[in-house]
Automatic annotation (TrEMBL):
Domain FAD-binding PCMH-type: from-to ranges: 17-183
Protein name, per record: UDP-N-acetylenolpyruvoylglucosamine reductase
Coiled-coil region: none
Cell cycle in keyword set: yes
A Pfam family annotated for this UniProt entry: FAD_binding_4
Encoding gene per record: murB
Functional summary from the UniProt entry: Cell wall formation.
GO molecular function: FAD binding; UDP-N-acetylmuramate dehydrogenase activity
Gene3D superfamilies given in the database record: 3.30.465.10, UDP-N-acetylenolpyruvoylglucosamine reductase, C-terminal domain, Uridine Diphospho-n-acetylenolpyruvylglucosamine Reductase, domain 2
Cofactor(s) annotated in UniProt: FAD
């Protein structure tokens, strides 16, 4: 177990915010995760568990312990890959394709670690991590016991799982077992995947071609955190009653939306923020990305407080214009 005191988290959050924590600990194996669990049990200091920091907004120094996994390894067993929680999720996606294991192509280039994929149920282009997750191996902090948690127990939903609610801070994830398909069944009907493929003259893509296309689409819209600090989508897309959607659709012709079920419709928060005129604008050193209004960016040296201020101002404007509450997808500390 690695442990550092008074540690800067700047390299551990993609917003690039320079906040410190009182103690930073890393586990690289199941045995070390047990040691960390014991430390957390006995020290009685508050703690948080972070992944790649791509969904994290630090608004202050943290007077507790920040826990991070560096558990590595990707091991194939039949149609499954057992992946260390500290592996980069996109490395798993890339590897799966080289192995002739399919289903993760649409999740290409999502930032973050394997452990976080299971907590956050990351998703893009009509696919979600939950479609691949078979089970999760973790240390229960309260007991130090190894647990194998099945997908069905996690109650996955849109960017949600029990790890974010009743299981929050209860487990140190060591590995995630993903189950793939051995036949390639591309999902091309979401957003502009098909039209992007057509630009390259492709109608029946290979898995590699689909991955490359998804990467191109994402790179065109989402800023590289190494260049411009950001945490991907800052807000979740709100799910509203169909009556509310009908009311707005009457006012805004061609309003984008995704049907959830008979009663509920998802409305893209990025579109609403754009309609409020925020795209490309800034408030202090915090800004709204000029190619995708759902992404808040650090224009250089912004504090977490400045980003929160921008977030709250946008929430107020969206509420005023559309009568809809939007909430951050990122974890605000
Ligand atoms: N739109 C605008 N203006 C904008 C942004 C979006 O008009 O500035 C419109 C688009 O034209 C489109 C609709 O809003 O009609 C939806 O936009 P987009 O397809 O870009 O997707 P999104 O709903 O903004 C979600 C995920 C992304 C994921 C994409 C593609 C959430 C919170 N975000 O974004 O995930 O990559 O769909 O599947 O669900 C992330 O979570 O970090 C993330 C990037």
């Amino acid at each position: 177990m690695k442990s550092e005191l008074n540690y800067s988290l700047k390299q551990h959050n993609t917003f690039g915010i320079d906040a410190k924590c009182a103690q930073f600990v890393e586990y690289s194996s199941e045995a070390e995760a047990k040691e960390v669990a014991e430390l957390l049990r006995t020290s009685r200091v508050p703690y948080i568990i972070i992944g790649g920091g791509s969904n994290l907004l630090l608004t202050r120094d943290y007077e507790g312990i920040v826990v991070h996994s560096t558990c590595k390894g990707i091991e194939r067993q039949g149609s499954r890959l057992i992946c260390g929680s500290g592996e980069v999720f996109d490395d798993v996606v890339a590897y799966s394709i080289t192995q002739g294991l399919y289903g993760a192509e649409n999740l290409s280039l999502i930032p973050g670690d394997v452990g976080a994929s299971a907590v956050q149920n990351i998703g893009a282009y009509g696919a979600e991590a939950k479609d691949l997750i078979h089970s999760i191996r973790a240390i229960e902090i309260a007991t130090g016991n190894v647990c194998v948690i099945e997908n069905a127990e996690c109650e996955y939903g849109y960017r949600q799982s029990r790890f974010k609610h009743d299981w929050k801070n209860q487990y140190l994830i060591v590995s995630v077992e993903y189950e793939f398909s051995e036949t390639f069944e591309p999902r091309l009907d979401y957003g502009n995947i098909r039209s992007e493929l057509e630009k390259s003259g492709i109608s029946n893509p290979t898995a590699h071609e689909l991955r490359d296309t998804i990467i191109r689409i994402r790179e065109a819209k989402l800023p590289d955190p190494k260049v411009l600090g950001n945490a991907g989508s800052f807000f979740m897309n709100p799910i509203v009653a169909r009556s509310k959607y009908n009311e707005l659709a009457g006012q805004y012709e061609g309003m984008p939306h995704y049907d959830i079920d008979a009663e509920n419709v998802k409305i893209p928060a990025g579109w609403m923020i754009d309609q409020c005129g925020w795209k490309g604008k800034s408030l202090g050193r915090a800004g709204v990305h000029d190619k995708q209004a759902l992404v808040l960016v650090n224009r250089g040296g912004a504090t977490g407080q400045e980003i929160v201020k921008l977030c709250e101002t946008i929430q107020k404007d969206v509420k005023q214009k559309f009568g809809i509450d939007i909430y951050p997808e990122v974890n605000v500390i």
